[in-house]
Amino acid sequence: MEPSKAPEQFLKPYNSAENEPRMLELWEKSDYANPDVCIKNGVTAFDAEPYSIVLPPPNVTGILHMGSALMIVIEDILIRYHRMRGKKVLWIPGTDSAAIATQAKVEGDIYKTEKKTRHDLGREELLKRVNAFTEESKKTIIDQTKKMGASLDWSRYAYTMDEKRYAAVMEAFVRMYNAGLIYRGDRIVNWDPKLQTTVSDEEIEYVEQQDSFYHFKYGPFDIGTVRPETKFGDKYVVMHPDDERYKDYTHGQKIDLEWINGPITATIIKDRSVDREFGSGVMTITPAHSLIDFEIAQRHGLDIECVIDDRGILLPIAGEFAGQHIKKARPLIVEKLKQKGLISKIDDGYVHNVATNSRGGGIIEPQIKRQWFIAVNKEVEFPDPSTELRAGGKKMTLKEHMRETVSSGAVEILPEHFSKIYFHWIDNLRDWCISRQIWFGHRIPAWFKGDEVKVQTESPGAEWQQDPDTLDTWFSSGLWTFSTLGWPHFAKTATRVEPGPENDLVNYHPTSVLETGYDILFFWVARMILMSGFLLGDIPFRKALLHGIVRDGQGRKISKSLGNNIDPLDMAAKYGMDAVRMSLIAGMAPGTDSRISEEKIRGYKHFANRTYEVPHIAG
Fold first, then answer.
1. Hey, what's the torsion of the CAs at 580, 584, 585, 587, to 10 degrees?
2. Measured between alpha carbons, how far is 378 from 288 in angstroms, rounded to an integer?
3. How many CB atoms sit inside 10 A of residue 308's CB?
4. Predicted TM-score (pTM) of this structure
5. Which of 337, 378, 600, 616 could make a disulfide contact with 6, Cβ separation 3.0–4.6 Å?
6. Can you give the pLDDT at residue 78?
7. Among residues 604, 615, 594, which one has the least CA distance to residue 74?
8. Do 198 and 435 form a contact (C-beta atoms < 8 A)?
9. What local confidence, expressed as pLDDT, does residue 1 receive?
10. DSSP string, 20-80
11. How far is it, in rounded angstroms, from Cα 104 to Cα 96?
């Protein structure tokens, strides 16, 4: 008996350009990524076990990169596997406004082409331009995500700045304010003079830099710094109370000494935070421009004077150097200190880490600002998860809740060793600054009339002015698992009900898995636990599965400066999306960095071709 002849198409090499669009069209027409359709058509049982994932929304600042592609592939594998097992599967797509990064990009483009700043344009015109950019970018990202072969339910697509998410953000802010968790106060923040906005601790990127380290004579003491331009306001000298070298000095003691702009009277402060092993064990403090110094000043009720303004310009306290930018002033200040005989030593080539804004590249200047914060150490009552009501709920701080949720096993972080990193971050967590001085984003629902403040979604009247600041984009992202499922329009009740978007919160929350990069464990994972816990009395997901960074074939981080970026869609056009998907997954493990190269992708094109030829070989 002769073997059956293989169909004609199997006699040719696999043509991804011909087959992939056809498969995507078939999947889209079937609509089986929508669980309601699967239930209606009898593919999935109504009472089937639910399995849900919210796609971490790609930023609208550009196009999909290999990191986003890896995330999509991992989640698509999970989704298809559980769908084949007969579960009621929902995978929700979306995009993120990436407020600071998006506004910075649009502002940069405008300045390059028109030489205009946002202040030249005004708020309304800038927002018009930003929104036009995001609309085009969203279309690109959605198209690219579909081409990745992702079986997402596009009927439930969400954008962090759409009307439903806006309603969720406003509701969350008002509830948290009324509970006393959100407050406005003067605290030290990370200030970006370049973008003229505050930046969260998690958005700080430390860059290694070489500078001179200056040793000064401060009366009888030796002190050191890389930033002599901040020292004009230093009138407190701080030492550890148990340091035997300084036992003859008493807390509060006054000493007269010669300083940059003439004689001053300094005060001795004894504080246990001082590192006795660093340098001479003595330091002067600049409370307005250092978090550590600010906390020392608060503990002892010390005066706080600003030395540098929002633009990096020295203030009148700097005397003859006032009005100069700190970069230009530094060598002049050092020269004056030399002339006065106050510099004892200069160490050149001192290597240290400089804080920069990862979203815009500006060097961070700590400043005291009146901002909006979320209090993480204030005890509040959490709601009953079956009712969202606080009566009889558990009392604890947000910090305690975030720790307990993971330590109890309610949320499992995988790989497990990331739990230790999570706990370390929680233990050192400070109140979260949520206000930003940019125009693109959810505007804070606070209204002012003189000294009066009202927090509500609608204007109290014509004489009231709305706060010009917007919210940290991670505030809205923290609501993602439940704002995409209908909250606050639809409540969460104890029993599952009929399928449909209006019942998604009941049917699919908490979500099954949050799959994301380990680099946003604190940005996002922790804050989702915070938000879901307080607003719903629920966990946002049962597991957080973390993947690593995608590096190039040599193990280097992919960056513009290295010119080693590999576009997943360009590679798919050359070798097929199956080859791209397989090359991303092959050899990777949860929580570890992986490598990608064109050679690897080319190899998996051959593998895809062999797989396609199996029927011919078998025949």
1. 120
2. 25
3. 27
4. 0.90
5. 616
6. 98
7. 594
8. yes
9. 47
10. HHHHHHHHHHHTTTSHHHHHHTTSS-TTPPEEEEEPPPPBTTS---HHHHHHHHHHHHHHH
11. 15
Nearest to 150 by CA among 239, 252, 235, 74: 74
Torsion of CA 131, 137, 142, 146, to 10 degrees: 170
Complete edge-to-edge strand list for the sheet that includes strand 343-357? 221-225, 204-218, 343-357
Q: Which of 486, 535, 482 is nearest to 510 (CA)?
A: 482
CA distances from 440 to 40, 104, 127, 163 (A): 41, 10, 6, 15
3-class secondary-structure state, position 210: strand
Helix spans in 310-445 (H)? 326-339, 398-407, 418-427
The bridge status of strand 262-270 relative to strand 236-239 is: parallel
The torsion angles phi and psi of 186, rounded to 5 degrees, stand at -95, 115
Would you list the domain boundaries of the chain?
Answer: 31-168+381-429+474-547, 205-363
* Distance between CA atoms of residues 600 and 250, nearest Å: 68
Q: Give the pair of three-digit tokens for residue 279.
A: 């340098």
The alpha carbon of 140 is separated from its chain's Cα centroid by a whole number of angstroms, namely 23
Burial of 374 per CB tally in 10 Å (0-12, 13-18, 19+): buried
Q: What kind and span of H or E run contains 572?
A: helix 568-575
CA 244 to CA 412: how far, in whole Å? Answer: 48
Length of the chain (residues): 619
Half-sphere exposure (CA, 13 Å, Cβ side) for 2? 3
Burial category of 528 from C-beta neighbours within 10 Å (exposed 0-12, middle 13-18, buried 19 and up): buried
Largest CA distance in the chain: 109
Provide the pairing of β-strand 465-466 with 452-455.
unpaired
E strands, 470-558, in order: 470-471, 511-517, 541-547, 550-551
In terms of Cα–Cα distance, which of 62, 67, 60 is closest to 520?
A: 67
- Fold agreement between 31-168+381-429+474-547 and 205-363: no
pLDDT score, position 33 = 96
Supply the angle between the helices 163-178 and 526-536 in degrees, to the nearest 10: 70
Q: Do residues 217 and 341 lie in contact, with contact meaning Cβ atoms separated by under 8 Å?
A: yes
CB neighbour class for 227 (10 Å; exposed up to 12, middle 13-18, buried from 19): middle
Contact assessment for residue 517 and residue 506, using Cβ atoms and an 8 Å cutoff:
no
Sign for the CA dihedral angle at 98, 204, 431, 404 comes to positive
| Cβ-Cβ contacts under 8 Å for 137 (sequence gap 6 or more) | 60, 61, 62, 95
| CATH number of the domain located at residue range(s) 205-363 in this protein | 3.90.740.10
Phi and psi (nearest 5°) for 542?
-90, -30
Q: For residue 492, give the amino acid letter.
A: K
Environment class of residue 483 by beta-carbon count within 10 Å: exposed (0-12), middle (13-18) or buried (19+)? buried
Which CATH fold topology does 31-168+381-429+474-547 show? Rossmann fold (3.40.50)
Q: Give Cα 619 to chain centroid, integer Å.
A: 54
Q: What is the pLDDT of residues 160-191, one digit of tens each?
A: 999 999 999 999 999 999 999 999 999 999 99
Residue 53: how many other CB atoms lie within 10 Å: 25
Q: Residues 36-84: pLDDT tens digits?
A: 999 999 999 999 999 999 999 999 987 888 999 999 999 999 999 999 9
